[in-house]
């Protein structure tokens, strides 16, 4: 079930047989299966009017810290649940326990991204009828999570100032699929020699559709804007539960 591994195996085979198109076919069938699962998830979420947000970033950019803070600050306003994907441990899920939200961990083992089928299985541990908003914390990785639709309404990419301004240019695909880019660790921007103007230019170059909100989870900077974004989209979701646009964009 590892896309990279399947591709590599197939690429070797293709090389031997001289058929360079083979590896694309295998990847496509895996993604097609995933898209079908994601479609079912999206229908299910829509029926229950749950806003679903897929959080993507490299390891250590602050996905779990952001969620921790968000669960605390918004728990009196909306009912939230979290699906947390990690390679080996459920440490992040544990960090999010007792924050007034349902939390379920997916340990992917060697798979470096979440797939719709994994999310689907994990949902049996959550009471969807009691949720307004579901966060999916993807595995920390800026490459393949971009290719796997999880039935979400929105994708949020977190870029931290300590990673440098050039990440959007190096990993354009993940930024291209983002609705919102949160630039985290703004409190460290100066120390990290991070040039905000260049970062925004780079994001706009590859992802003109993405909104940008600078934040610092640690210092609480910009979080009001982030909450406003969430609450606004939650209201829209209640009014228009079926997000056909998300599906059209993902596939
Ligand atoms: Mg995490
Ligand atoms: Zn992967």
Keywords:
seven-stranded parallel beta sheet; binds magnesium ion; globular; 251 residues; disordered N terminus; alpha/beta; binds zinc ion
Overview of this protein structure:
The longest helix is centred in the first third of the chain and has 26 residues, at 22-47. The protein has 251 residues and is an alpha/beta fold. The model is unreliable at 1-20 (pLDDT under 50). It is built from 10 helices and 7 strands. A 7-stranded parallel β-sheet has the order 3-2-4-1-5-6-7, with helices on both faces. The chain has helices at residues 3-17, 22-47, 63-74, 91-96, 116-122, 167-170, 172-176, 196-206, 223-239, 244-250, and strands spanning 51-57, 80-86, 102-107, 133-137, 154-160, 180-184, 211-214. The radius of gyration is 18 Å and the shape is globular. Strand 2, helix 4 and strand 3 (102-107) form a beta-alpha-beta unit. Helix 1 runs antiparallel to helix 2. It is 44% helix and 16% strand. The structure holds magnesium ion and zinc ion (ZN).
Taking the sheet with the most strands, its summary is: 7 strands, parallel
Please bin the fraction of helical residues. Answer: 40-55%
Number of helices: 10
Q: What is the global morphology?
A: globular
List the helices and strands and how they pair.
Layout: H1 3-17, H2 22-47, E1 51-57, H3 63-74, E2 80-86, H4 91-96, E3 102-107, H5 116-122, E4 133-137, E5 154-160, H6 167-170, H7 172-176, E6 180-184, H8 196-206, E7 211-214, H9 223-239, H10 244-250
Parallel strand pairs: 1-4, 1-5, 2-3, 2-4, 5-6, 6-7
Magnesium ion is lined by residues 63-64, 92, 137.
């Amino acid at each position: 079930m590892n896309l990279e591994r399947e591709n590599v195996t197939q690429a070797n085979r293709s090389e031997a047989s001289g058929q360079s198109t083979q590896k694309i076919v295998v990847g496509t069938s895996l993604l097609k299966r995933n898209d079908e699962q994601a479609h079912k998830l999206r229908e299910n979420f829509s029926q229950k009017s749950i806003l679903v947000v897929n959080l993507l970033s490299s390891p250590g950019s602050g996905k779990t810290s952001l969620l921790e803070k968000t669960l605390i600050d918004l728990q009196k306003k909306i009912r939230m649940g979290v699906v947390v994907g990690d390679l080996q441990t459920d440490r992040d899920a544990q960090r999010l326990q007792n924050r007034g939200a349902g939390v379920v961990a997916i340990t992917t083992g060697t798979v470096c991204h979440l797939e719709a089928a994994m999310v689907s299985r994990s949902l049996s541990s959550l009471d969807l009828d009691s949720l307004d908003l579901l966060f999916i914390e993807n595995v920390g990785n800026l490459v393949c999570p971009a290719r796997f639709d999880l039935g979400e309404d929105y994708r949020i990419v977190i870029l931290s100032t300590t990673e440098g301004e050039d990440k959007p240019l190096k990993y354009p695909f993940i930024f291209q699929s983002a609705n919102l880019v949160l630039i985290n660790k703004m409190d460290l921007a100066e120390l990290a020699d991070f040039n905000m103007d260049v970062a925004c230019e780079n994001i706009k170059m590859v992802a003109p559709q993405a909104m940008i909100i600078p934040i610092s989870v640690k210092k609480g900077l910009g979080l009001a804007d982030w909450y406003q974004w969430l609450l606004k989209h939650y209201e829209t979701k209640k009014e228009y539960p079926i997000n056909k646009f998300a599906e059209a964009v993902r596939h």
